[in-house]
Amino acid sequence: MRRGLVESGLLVSLAQIAAVVAIGVPLLAYLAQDSLIFLPPQPLSEARRATVAAEELFHEARDGTRLHAWHVKGASGAPLVLYFGGNAEDVSWMAGEARRRAPGTGWLLVDYRGYGASGGSPSEKALVADALEWYDLATQKLGARDIFVFGRSLGSGVAVQLAAERRVAGVILVAPYDSMVELGRHHYPLLPVSWLLRHRFESASRAPGIAAPLLCLVAGRDEIIPAERSRRLYDAWAGPKRWVELDGAGHNSTDGSPLFWDHIRRFIAGG
């Protein structure tokens, strides 16, 4: 009799542990998702900011949040590229690269909310709303006519939604994904990602409505975003499109490929 009680107690304990795990792990993932998706880098020191080869622009968003971007001025009448970086990226590094690799082209390197000198906290809704405001500022205050949007990794989800809402000359996506939900399922197959995820970035569902030309650059050895996730977005794109696989490149080394800037320059030039 006593043995049966012990076994029953053990089964109850195991069931309780299983219940805690079944509830606790998804709850922890839900609460921690912002820190998994958005990883703001350390703010630049004043000395480092002074070395960035770009002008600082500040913009007050409609909700009062003070936003920041780096502006690389282009030649008169040249296209402007709106750049949205990866989840842990300090976009200021692109200022020098853009000047050297794509001379004459204008660039607006956007600091997401909570990143760099931008205030606030990041979210999908806020980042997309801010992107639309930066686009409008570029046309109304900077006088930009031909605007390209450039999204890397996380930023591809922002760039796609901007292209779905505004007229753009072209879209450059580096290591993009079709859906944050599908990407989450790939990395966390045991979690109910679709129920948990607040920042969904459903790019593939918007792609059929975008007629702008697309340049899609993917890493041949991407350890973060599988090529099939990029391919699904690419296949859904309605406009003219070009797929470029950078052999040997990893997720964070795409720009080290000699083809990276060659394709970007030609795309912006209309080639």
Walk me through the structure.
With 271 residues, this protein is α/β, with parallel strands linked by helices. It folds into two domains: 1-37; 41-268, Alpha/Beta hydrolase fold, catalytic domain (Rossmann fold, 3-Layer(aba) Sandwich), CATH 3.40.50.1820. It has ten helices and eight strands. It has helices at residues 2-37, 46-49, 93-101, 124-140, 154-165, 180-187, 193-196, 203-206, 227-236, 258-268, and strands spanning 55-60, 66-72, 80-84, 106-111, 147-152, 170-174, 214-219, 241-246. It has an eight-stranded mixed β-sheet, sandwiched between helices. A hairpin with a 5-residue loop joins strand 1 and strand 2 (66-72). Helix 4 (124-140) crosses helix 5 (154-165). The longest helix is centred in the first third of the chain and has 36 residues, at 2-37. The protein is globular. The protein starts with a helix and ends with a helix. The model is unreliable at 5-27 (pLDDT under 50).
Secondary-structure map with pairings?
Blueprint: H1 2-37, H2 46-49, E1 55-60, E2 66-72, E3 80-84, H3 93-101, E4 106-111, H4 124-140, E5 147-152, H5 154-165, E6 170-174, H6 180-187, H7 193-196, H8 203-206, E7 214-219, H9 227-236, E8 241-246, H10 258-268
Parallel strand pairs: 3-4, 3-5, 5-6, 6-7, 7-8
Antiparallel strand pairs: 1-2, 2-4
Helix pairs in contact: 4-5
